[in-house]
Amino acid sequence: MKCPVCLNLSASEEEIENAPRLILKVNCFRCGEYKADASFLHSSPENPTPEEIAKASGWVYNNPGIILDEACWSQIASKNNPSVGEKSDLLLLYLTKKFPKPNQELAFQACGQELSCCYAIDKDEASYIFSRYLKDYKHYISNPQHGGQPFVISPAGWDHIHELSRINSDSKKAFCAMWFDDSVKPLWAKSISPAISELGYDPIRIDERQHNNKIDDEIITAIKKSRFILADFSGNRGGVYFEAGYALGLNIPVIWMVRKKDLKKIHFDNRQYNFLVWEPNNLADLKQKLKARIEATVGLPK
To answer: For the domain 84-166, what is the CATH code?
Structure first.
């Protein structure tokens, strides 16, 4: 089949059994493995530019765990392309996951998932990020004095990876992904906000922040700066799935919650997570359970 994201002709698909609706698992040389329903596969943009393909493929690769549907195309289109510095961080993270041992020789081909992991348009851009930016400018990649391969991640590269991992560990922010409906206002006021605040974290809900940017960009920025994400799936809102999936892709811990009557509506591939199940009449008890879950998952702020 042809991948609807990057248009690669050698992609393969298989139907996921026992799914509540038709869900396909797609394996693509460039985009990696992802799950999508029929509405996503059949609504891809016509005649996308190389820049649009790079953005879509990068977004799909860097947001694992999401079941892609038609609405994801508009989310992808609304995103800004990462800067060269952000792309280089993504490529370095990819390389350290693929070659995790210090002084381990690595090979870089500038193709396939090495393009998507860093939103590169083509081989030339990926090679520039690797050779000119990571190796020559930042010195995060080193190679023998005589040039050529093998390459290794340099000590400076490992130090930078360590600093990237520390950014969120030092954060006191907690991003809250939830439905902004009147029916869950008591949940926020009596459980979520006080539980997070009493532990010393700062609860962030995007509808309460003042900003001039696109709301999607503001959400991405807030998630990236957070120590953990609290995702409440009451109302089964698509945006909560996206925000939780994006956090997982960044290795940011997610606290899972859902109102009891909505538990059966959770997508089947998210049900393996340990949800805190709540009801409107147990919000005080929920606050204490939530505090215990947060402390057990990420500890207290430094």
So the answer is: 1.10.10
